[in-house]
Design goal:
0% strand; mainly alpha; 246 residues
Length: 246
């Protein structure tokens, strides 16, 4: 039975990934997301329903437009697959439970935030509100009111101070406040640690490759999303391993 649920969830997640791909392409160009019909970027032909099936349409069409035979960008299909993979892993780890489905949903939102922030240097308020809302739901289910309350401020407040000195974006502050509600104070501290570590490593690599200087602006949201994803997957095990050393 669980296998069927996982298969169904994977299909739904590819559809969500398709929407994320649309956001990734259209939002930076300030195009309509809901109203605009999908079309070929080369010839402008409106795509039919059977050409919009996530993953399968790309394979069936062999990566080419039916009309003009131009290559279909593979990025959309990659986004669909990655959304499904990132989303299904928490469901496998936590099982078919409320926590599993919430973390599955949060994984999709984190992926959307990471993609768009890397392209636009902005984090959607709506995405943060959705994470916070899911966090509130999980808080009521697990009775983690105190941990979520502390988590709301223990990282976001220091980040807010940094943002006031223009050392960080306010979107990062809102993101970590939402993550604090979701994961509690232990989880959000780990998420921040993982995220900062990933960001520092990325900054060093970019400096070595000379693609960025030390004073160049860099989207930090994607690394916080990576840290949050790692924390919700392996955070508890990391804490147990750390405490076992003492």
């Amino acid at each position: 039975m669980n296998i069927l649920i996982f298969i169904f969830a994977f299909i739904i997640l590819t559809c969500i990934g398709s929407f994320i791909g649309v956001c990734y392409e259209r939002i930076p160009r300030e195009e309509q997301i809901i109203k605009g019909r999908s079309h070929c970027d080369t010839c402008g032909r409106t795509l039919k329903v059977w050409e919009l099936i996530p993953v399968f349409s790309f394979i069936f069409l062999r990566g080419k437009c039916v009309s003009c035979k131009s290559k279909i960008p593979v990025s959309s299909t990659v986004i669909e697959l990655l959304t499904a993979i990132f989303g299904i892993i928490p469901l496998i780890v936590y099982g078919v439970t409320v926590q599993g489905f919430i973390y599955c949903s949060v994984s999709c939102i984190l992926f959307e935030i990471a993609l768009l922030d890397s392209k636009t240097m902005e984090i959607s308020d709506l995405a943060c509100i959705l994470i916070a809302g899911l966090g509130v739901g999980l808080m009521f289910c697990n009775d983690t009111y105190v941990s979520s309350a502390i988590g709301l401020i223990c990282v976001s407040v220091p980040f807010l101070i940094l943002a006031l000195f223009k050392m960080m974006g306010f979107g990062d502050v809102k993101l970590m406040a939402a993550v604090g509600i979701l994961l509690g104070f232990k989880g959000v501290l780990l998420a921040a640690f993982f995220g900062i570590t990933a960001g520092c490593i990325a900054a060093i690599i970019k400096k070595i490759r000379k693609t960025h200087g030390w004073k160049s602006e860099m989207a930090f949201g994607p690394y916080l999303c990576i840290g949050t994803y790692l924390s919700l997957l392996i955070g508890e095990k990391c804490l147990e391993l750390y405490l076992s050393l003492f």
